[in-house]
Design goal:
single chain; Serine Threonine Protein Phosphatase 5, Tetratricopeptide repeat; elongated; ARM-type_fold; mainly alpha; mRNA splicing; MIF4G-like_typ-3
């Protein structure tokens, strides 16, 4: 009797299985290759961005038949997870739409679904980046201007709902205003009246909203030298300034302009009607904040000029830096490198912008987004990565904070103490204390000498008392903490009042 299995006679079973394995392996390798190409587009390369985009679009078009779903998913996730490359991916989608109209329609549907899902799941940053990407697709002739305006109008309608929290209404207006820098010029040229009507509705909303939270979120109790503006008021002033400049900004890279002759001939798609999901009690919305300002152009050395507080470029720079910190906060070295190598670093005094944004995060009220030590470690790494500039800028910022400490919020005062003591401990406690001698003429409870006293008390945990006695100038002797010493309560004054039995027990224990 033949005991061999039938499929072993001709080897078809193993042959087919090996073919399937090879096929799956090849598909996975191809998918990974496509994902890597899409993710890294726009990064350092020997060839130009335009040629890279053309080559990548050709590769994606040839692979649409086998990897359509994969390409749709990656292209929709990239502008949300890497918002700084929004215009690069919109150019890619525009070029693919010009070659394949059906793919463009599928992508718009996929992106709209992503936007809706983000709203339903309270992923507010993802929803705002998705809205921005949809708006930028108008510049690439993928989406019609009329349908985008319809979407923006529905967002403003959601902001005018009754019986909903103000934070919900504020977010919808903020999402619309933060999108306009990308698409404002296109809307101004093609739908000027509709754009003006949208802005009028937003202005009416802003004039009616209450700002009771403003004083509670301020870092300083006074507005000199920099006013502390509520975030929506500041963004609205920046948008108005942009409108005065005919919606022309200087910091958003727009690679699709190089392909205008190709993109302008493409057929456009309409965004379907989108109704924001109704408010539910379980929804949590972003809280308001006050825009933090520390520097203006007079504080910076000769060179690139710091954009004004109400220029849209200031908003774009700060938003980009906040996004980098959010993305790379877990690894301080990567975070420092990405901060220092910003794409338009040659157009601005980058070090000043970085320091201002990090202190804005640290002093964010009522609590910082992340642990205080996160910002301290990033600043230390920035000083190591760029020792020629960053330490000087940070010292200048510390001096500004110390001079304005009289009006600083108490919570921010404590955070300033914690950061400065931690920073000193990583740089051998070196500081030009003689520059602050004037504070010694003030009472000890005044914020300035109190700050120095608290810093030294914190530093004592990182070092030892004799070191501070040697390091600090003699004039600061009264602010140096007392030397730590053990306190044995049974030998202290009044120890005789303890019961005799307890004293005898202590004596017996001391014999062992």
């Amino acid at each position: 009797m033949n005991r061999r299995r039938p499929y072993e006679d001709d080897g078809d079973f193993y042959g087919e299985r090996n073919k399937k394995r090879r096929r799956v392996s090849e598909n996975q390798e191809m998918e990974e290759r496509l994902e890597t190409l899409i993710l890294r587009v726009g990064e350092n390369s020997t060839s130009s961005l335009e040629s890279n985009l053309e080559g990548l679009v050709s590769v994606l078009e040839s692979d649409l038949g086998n990897f359509r779903a994969k390409i749709l998913r990656i292209l929709s996730e990239c502008p949300i997870k890497m918002p700084e490359k929004c215009t690069i991916y919109s150019t890619m989608v525009g070029l693919m739409n010009a070659k394949n109209y059906n793919f463009g329609g599928e992508f718009v549907e996929y992106m709209v679904k992503t936007f809706k899902d983000s709203l339903k799941q309270c992923q507010w940053d993802a929803a705002r980046y998705a809205l921005r990407f949809l708006a930028d697709l108008v510049n690439c002739h993928v989406i019609s201007t009329a349908s985008l305006l319809q979407l923006l109008d529905s967002m403003v309608d959601a902001a005018n709902e009754d019986n909903v929290p103000q934070v919900r209404r504020d977010w919808y207006v903020f999402a619309v205003l933060s999108t306009l820098p990308w698409v404002g010029r296109e809307l101004y040229e093609k739908k000027e009246s509709a754009l003006e009507n949208l802005l009028v509705r937003i202005e009416v909303f802003l004039n009616k909203r209450t700002k009771k939270h403003h004083n509670a979120l301020r870092v300083w109790s006074v507005d000199a030298p920099h006013p502390q503006e509520e975030y929506l008021d500041c963004l609205w002033a920046q948008i108005r300034k942009l409108r005065q400049d005919n919606w022309a900004e200087k910091h958003i890279p727009r690679p699709y302009l190089a392909f205008d002759s190709v993109l302008c001939e493409a057929l456009q798609h309409n965004i379907p009607a989108i109704h924001p999901p109704p408010h539910q009690d379980s929804f949590e919305y972003p809280m308001p904040w006050v825009v933090y300002r520390m520097f203006d152009y007079t504080d910076c050395p000769p060179g690139p000029i710091l954009p004004g507080a109400h220029s849209i470029e200031r908003f774009l720079i700060e938003e980009h830096l906040h996004s980098i910190i959010e993305t790379h906060r877990w690894e301080r070295k990567d975070c420092a490198i990405h901060l220092l190598y910003l794409s338009y670093k040659d157009k601005i005094p980058l070090e000043y912008c970085i320091v201002e944004v990090i202190f804005a995060e640290l002093f964010h009220m009522p609590t910082p987004r992340y642990l205080e030590i996160c910002y301290g470690s990033i600043l230390i790494e920035l000083c190591k990565q760029q020792p020629s500039k960053m330490p000087q800028v940070l010292a200048q910022a510390t001096e500004i904070l110390f001079m304005r400490i009289d009006s600083m919020n108490t919570s921010c005062f404590d955070r300033f103490v914690n950061w400065f003591s931690y920073h000193l401990s990583n740089f051998q406690f070196r500081w030009s204390w003689d520059d602050w001698d004037s504070c010694l003429l003030l009472e000890n409870e005044h914020p300035r000498p109190k700050f120095i006293q608290e810093v030294l008390l914190k530093c004592l945990r990182f070092s030892y008392h004799d070191r501070f006695k040697e390091m600090m100038p003699e004039a600061y002797a009264k602010l140096i903490p007392k030397p730590p010493a053990p306190q044995y309560k049974y030998t202290m004054e009044g120890a005789g009042k303890w019961p005799l039995r307890l004293v005898l027990l202590i004596y017996e224990l001391s014999l062992f």
